[in-house]
Predict the structure.
Amino acid sequence: MSKFVTYVIRLPEDQEATREIVNGVRALVEKNGGEITGTSNEDEMTILEMIEQHEDFREYIADEARAQAKELGAKAVQ
């Protein structure tokens, strides 16, 4: 099982509610021994899916990226 999980959360318009969600997620992760290793203010998963579906995209690029990410993940748990 991977040591990483990615979520895309559609945040509410209300800034206070957004702050509470972000702070709550951070607190829960820290409380349970996790570590947030990256954040983004965009829907990176959808962007990547769209790139991979583009007619000019070559599948080997995704294969190489996944292999490299797997290596980084293995190093992170050592």
Observations:
- Helices lie at 15-31, 44-53, 59-76.
- The chain has a mean pLDDT of 91.
- Residues 15-76 form one domain.
